[in-house]
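**User:** Once you have settled down, spend some time on the protein underneath, comparing sequence with structure tokens, and judge whether sequence predicts the tokens.
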Amino acid sequence: MPTNYKHETVVNADIETTFAWFEHEGSFRRLMPPWEVAQEVRADDSLEVGSQRVFKFPAPGAPFINLTWIAEHTGYDKPNYFADTMVKGPFWKWDHDHYLKEENGVTTVVDDVTYSVPFGPLGMLVDKVLGGSLVTGRISSMFRAREFRLKRDLDNHAKFLNMPRKKILIVGSSGLIGTQLVAFLDTGDHEVWRLVRRESDSNKNEISWNPSKGEINPKELEGFDVVIHLGGVGIGDKRWSKKRKAAIKDSRVNSTELLSKTLASLENKPDLFMMASAIGYYGNRGDEELDESSSCGEEGYFLTDVCRQWEDSANPAKEAGIRTVHLRTGIVISAVGGALGKMLLPAKIGGGGPIGGGKQWMSWISMDDQIYSIYHLMMSEGSSGEFNLTAPNPVRQKEFAKTLGRVLRRPAFAPLPGFMMKIMFGEMGARLTLDSLRVLPKNLQESGYEFIHTDLQSALNDSLGKWR
């Protein structure tokens, strides 16, 4: 027998603005629960009847098995209603109606889902025996996460609705941060293009380049308002061999220098060049409180040297009069990648705890604050220079481990000596887990940005879907 589930979300936006957010392709990615590792295969840029969205995701409890979900839109009455049904997927039935109604400029979105779990009555029985954790609990968590994303996205877009929409070019659009940033900007009705290192698809707003060979077509870069460079070989993906270090540095410095010089040479230069950097710029500083006025770390320290050269490679754009912003990012809280993604498995089995004594400071930022702060700086025309993208309350590593354990309801007392990190992961493991950086977002806060997550537990709750 089918089960019915309803969820209401109230947003501070009129019905036309709210419906328009859903109509953008990026809404699909933004509504995906932040703990789900999902791959978007295809998404039609429409909610009209017959359009489809296809994605793959790991099977619950069997992460090495990918499931495919094909959703087809079956109802459309702009701006009041749209609907979709599962054509292929893990449920026996999934029909999702979305109703929108407005009163005094405030819109209520009602999600009305009728579903049947796999294996019919047996599946329903198992779900009830387990307290709804298999299906009902996951659905409830999913819609709560969707509510947060919808409300926050619309609130952050609303801050700059009176400004013209931008034509934006993004490098690193398929990365952990880039994927979410592209989706968010798209839902704000900005024109988003991708600079990719493969053959471009003209139907998907893509431009090709090959920075390792110094190949880029300046004519294709004319006329953009904003260029955002987030690309680079992963810092924590592999041990730091001599070859890997060269790839980490060259993928950042050489590509930024090529892009910066090209932008400086254009007839129609962008108004803004934003580029990723990292708090590794400051080196290993113990208990010292650091902000953007703090000195660079010691010369010869790998991460510091990379960040310094990385930022300097943007000088041609800056000298050409292009407003330039350096995004010195800390540990981004994401359940599907980055530092937290690597911590989850040992933490879930009770293996989390102090590393190397746990006194080292960890400067973190939630994924939502990462995206919204970039947008804030992009749309704030007076913003330029260096900005630490870190939450205002860094924590010691032992407190990070303890908080993560509390959110996961797992013990977090198993210590791991620092020398073990060096043995297992070499210099990379030592630097990324034992260095102490107590970094504060002074410039970002003075620019007027207000954080969604100022404490670590709320950021982890939202990222993992673990609310009490």
Summary: The radius of gyration is 23 Å.
